[in-house]
Amino acid sequence: MKGALVTETGRATDISPLLNRGEVFYSLKSRKPSDREDLLARVALLRSRPGSDRVQAFALITLSSFCVRDCVYCGFRSDSPLENMYRLTRSEIMAAADRAAAQGFRRLILRSGCDPSITPEAVTEIIRDLAAAHGFEIGLSLGERPAEALDAWRRAGASWYWLFRDTSDPSLYRRVRPSMRWADRARAWDELKKSGLRIGTGMLLGMPNQSHESLMDDLLLYADPAIGAACIEPYLPPPDSPGYQLLSRPENLIVSAELPVMEKTVAILRLLRPDVIIALGASHARAYRALENPALFAAGANALIFDFTPTDYLSLRVFAPFLGAPADQDRATREAAAMLATAGLRLSHKD
Known about the structure:
The protein has helices at 21-29, 33-47, 90-102, 120-134, 147-156, 170-176, 182-194, 212-221, 242-247, 259-272, 282-288, 295-298, 311-314, 331-342, and strands at 5-6, 12-13, 54-64, 107-112, 137-141, 158-162, 198-205, 227-234, 277-280, 303-307, 325-326, 346-348. By secondary structure, the chain is α/β, with parallel strands linked by helices. It has one domain (54-348): Aldolase class I (TIM Barrel, Alpha-Beta Barrel). The strands form 2 sheets. An 8-stranded parallel beta barrel has the order 3-4-5-6-7-8-9-10, surrounded by 6 helices. The protein has a two-stranded antiparallel ribbon with strand order 1-2. The relative contact order is 0.17.
């Protein structure tokens, strides 16, 4: 595995060996602890660069849990009980943002299910209000949206848009998102790349029938320099969901989402993209104790998302993807900062 690693600028660096397609595939399939340790050692070399000890802190607010989609793994499914659904009012959104700002956060993500009631005009007004009140760097994750909406939000002050791909395998995509079309996602992705917004995306690890080949393709997709941030989520469907039933069949489980596999996957992405933001959130806190255990940060994660959705609603969407880790007053961020410090890392709210 000798060679130079190609960075986002297209220039080679001798900090880490190149991981080509075959090496990525070998690393994913290998069950040897020594191979995983080798990946982690290479990531440690990257961590030795100036500024690489920083872990960026993001605040997240879920505007709505209503969704017209039927993704098999998500607690926001359209057939979810109505008593579990909510939409935040404008005052609730602003109050949640005030809490985040009071704790020093300057990066804010607004996300929701695919809810037509969250109109482009309403989002534009919220972006302007939040930017004026606190000067947030604002990211959005509101599903597939037309180019006109993306442009309006960018002009209003949004900097980022997160659009999850889940997988690079069209057949697997249809299996976990049966109410959605691969072609529509690809079209939305193309529109996003033209929008001028910075792009965040994500994939799922441990899906039913996910192969090592498709997982390799997922990771190589992130070599695209247009991608500025990524989240590798463990597949954690609600117990009463169709996605959970699929996972309960042993023949469907090819790639697991156990901690050593997640460590390898994060490390491979870090070696492929030394400059990309790799974010952890609620699912990582639940599955891997990521607020207490620095293992995934040692593997290359360099961002942590905290949830500022009003506490009255937190229990209603614990099994949905791309959520922040609980932010209980400022205790959660203090404890996370202390945990990171034990690994020689620092939690950064601003820089």
